[in-house]
Automatic annotation (TrEMBL):
Organism: Brevundimonas bullata
KW Transferase (keyword) present: yes
PANTHER family: ALPHA-METHYLACYL-COA RACEMASE, SUCCINYL-COA--D-CITRAMALATE COA-TRANSFERASE
Protein name in the entry: Crotonobetainyl-CoA:carnitine CoA-transferase CaiB-like acyl-CoA transferase
Any single Pfam family the record assigns to this protein: CoA_transf_3
Domain of life of the organism encoding this protein: Bacteria
GO MF annotation terms: transferase activity
InterPro entries recorded: CoA-transferase_III, CoA-Trfase_fam_III, CoA-Trfase_III_dom3_sf, CoA-Trfase_III_dom_1_sf
Length: 370
């Protein structure tokens, strides 16, 4: 596997860091999770559980080893530094400054291991005016301006459906870690990576910053292409209260759909700018899709070259045979569901290890690296 032989120490909790190291573990890295003493990783105890483990923990910590360490004790610090001396990658997600105060920051580790790639994931980065501000995903999204974009037709923002700041910072960190490991092959030197959830979120807004940068004005979500202003990129309710989506604003898709619906006269409306000028087409489509239940529209759209999809529940998505066919749904020996890895190589593919580290598993890592 691509990362076989890579040794990773993970000091992070919850989602961004653990997802980063999970993707590395799936591709062969030896990951040792350092847990706080007592209850350990919080996600062991959060949310729904099956077969003795929380679903969240199972799908962020499979295939890793774990050890509980009191990082404030001399014994805990010594144990950590023994592992750190041989680590290729260290991931931490403390508030800025905490790792240094504990004696496990980059400079302390680099003194004994100059080749280490040290990745710090935080809400707002290691410097800047928000450096010490506490935050989880929704707060970061709010400050980054993207919660305001998640506006319903009632004009009110809704809670984000995905942990965007967590996810984007995790993927940013993975990219940075791999870049640093690649560069180390040439220089022999590691590096320090400062990944901010806030920065990572802002970095993924190029497709929606047009109005902000071009006019200096805030977005008007209901009138803009990505959030309801475009008739062909929108949500529509069906007769049974279920919903469907149209997801392609290209004129060819409007032509295909409106020809099939015997309303070619509205093709010109689809060519108008998103917003009020497309209201006649949005109204027509809304009235049309309310005439049949979702299942009938799924049959009607079959074979039609239009970006159409039903709005499914997460359960429906994971129950879809297509999800299992792509390896994104698997099960362990006890029947517990496992979310697969999206990184698929032709050669040396991922090998998912469904085993979970035991709580308080000092013995799991006491022998050091494999």
């Amino acid at each position: 596997m691509k990362l076989e032989g890579v040794k990773v120490l993970d000091l992070s909790l919850f989602l961004p860091g653990p997802m980063l190291t999970l993707m590395m573990a799936d591709h062969g890295a030896d990951v040792i999770k350092i847990e706080p003493p007592g209850e350990g990783e919080p996600t062991r105890h959060i949310g729904y559980a099956k077969n003795g483990a929380s679903v969240w923990f199972r799908n962020t910590h499979r295939g890793k080893r774990a050890v509980q360490l009191d990082m404030k004790s001399a014994e805990g610090l010594a144990f950590f530094m023994r592992l750190a001396a041989e680590a290729d990658v260290i991931v931490e997600a403390f508030r800025p400054g905490v790792a240094d105060r504990l004696g496990v920051g980059y400079q302390a580790v680099r003194a004994i291991n100059p080749g280490v790639v040290y990745c710090a994931v935080s809400a707002f980065g290691q410097d800047g005016p928000y450096r010490d501000r506490p935050a989880h995903d929704v707060s970061v999204q709010a400050l980054a301006g993207v919660v305001s974009l998640n506006e319903g037709q009632d004009g009110k923002p809704a809670m984000p459906h995905m942990p965007v700041a967590d996810a984007l910072s995790s993927l940013t960190a993975l990219s940075g870690v791999l870049m640093a490991l690649l560069r180390r092959q040439t220089t022999g030197e590691g590096d320090y990576l400062d990944v901010s959830m806030y920065d990572s979120t802002l970095a993924w807004t190029p497709n929606v910053t047009g109005k902000v940068f071009a006019t200096g004005e805030a977005n008007s979500p209901k009138d803009e292409r990505s959030w309801g202003g475009a008739a062909m990129y929108n949500l529509y309710e069906c007769a049974d209260g279920q919903w469907i989506t149209l997801g392609g604003s290209e004129l060819k898709f409007a032509r295909n759909l409106l020809t099939a619906l015997e309303r070619p006269d509205l093709i010109a409306v689809a060519a108008e700018a998103p917003g009020p000028k497309q209201a006649p087409l949005r109204d027509f489509l809304a009235a049309t899709f309310r005439q049949k239940p979702r299942a009938e529209w799924e049959i009607w759209f079959a074979g039609l070259d239009v970006c159409f999809a039903p709005v499914r529940t997460l359960k429906e998505a994971f129950d879809d045979p297509a999800t299992e066919a792509r390896g994104m749904m698997a099960r362990d020996a006890e029947g517990s569901e496992i979310v697969g890895t999206p990184i698929r190589f032709l050669r040396e593919p991922a090998q998912i290890d469904p085993s979970l580290p035991a709580a308080g598993g000092a013995a799991d890592a006491s022998a050091g690296w494999r």
